[in-house]
Amino acid sequence: MPLRTIPPLDDDEWIALMKDLEKGQTEEQAECVRKALALVKKLNIPEN
Amino acid sequence: MKSIDFTKVGMARLSSSTPGIDTFQNKKAEMVNYLQECALADQEDKIGTTWVWNYDNSIVLGYVTLAMYSIDRKYIQDLSGKYFQYRSIPALLLGQIATHKNYENRGIGTYMVSWTINKAIVLSKDVGCRMLTLHPHKDVVEWYQKLGFKLIESKHKKNIMYLYI
């Protein structure tokens, strides 16, 4: 079974993604990233 | 549901000596099959690197497989705008992720995705990496949305998701 890769985007999908990319990260998305980083820092699971 | 004592959780890159691989279980047989049959070969071929979280260095709680990737356009059409000049956008691919079925709903999946977000941010300082992307099964799309991922609008409902980093 292969990795679940991303199929190429049709133009409508590409345009939607690029328009969103130009808008940039929303405050809601930024908050999700902050929460993720805080969780990683809090649990601090070691690499062994 | 008993919570996990995270002080007993460790993680490491998959190797031939990683304990607990043979007893890993997941509701989706393909997730088990990938870890047990394909992951090491993909890693040796540098197609995907698998990271495994274990409990007490014996039970595999879950794993993720990561790869450098890009989101590509199928067709060429002249467009204008800051990003429209590119035909692909660099991304980190979350190519596989699974939690042991006996340890679901205890925060392992959320932690593994959070760790991957952190990994993407660290990588993006050295190589171009605009987003973390994945192609999840339909039944987990909502779960990823709660973690901040967005679905690419698609007539074909391809379930391609991304998170800006």
Describe the protein.
The complex is a heterodimer of chains A (48) and B (165). Chain A has 48 residues and is an all-alpha fold. Chain A is 62% helix and 0% strand. The longest helix of chain A has 17 residues, at 27-43. Chain A is flat, with a radius of gyration of 16 Å. With 165 residues, chain B is an alpha+beta fold. In chain B, β2 (49-55) and β3 form a beta hairpin. Chain B is globular, with a radius of gyration of 17 Å. Chains A and B meet through α1 and α2 of A and β1, α1, β3, β4 and α2 of B.
Unreliable parts of chain A: none
Poorly predicted regions of chain B are none
Class inferred from helices and paired strands of chain B:
alpha+beta
Strand percent estimate of chain B: 25-35%
Shape of chain B: globular
The order of strands across the largest sheet of chain B is 1-2-3-4-5-7-6
Summarize the biggest pleated sheet of chain A: none
Mean pLDDT of chain A: 90
* Separate helix tally of chain B: 3
Q: Separation of termini of chain A?
A: 27 Å
The succession of helices and strands of chain A, N to C, reads HH
- Write the element-wise H/E pattern of chain B from the N-terminal end onward: EHEEEHEHEE
Strand content of chain A: under 5%
Which pair of chains has the greatest number of interface residues, and how are they split between the two chains?
A-B, 38 and 61 residues
Fraction in helix of chain B: 10-25%
Judged by helices, strands and strand pairing, the structural class of chain A is mainly alpha
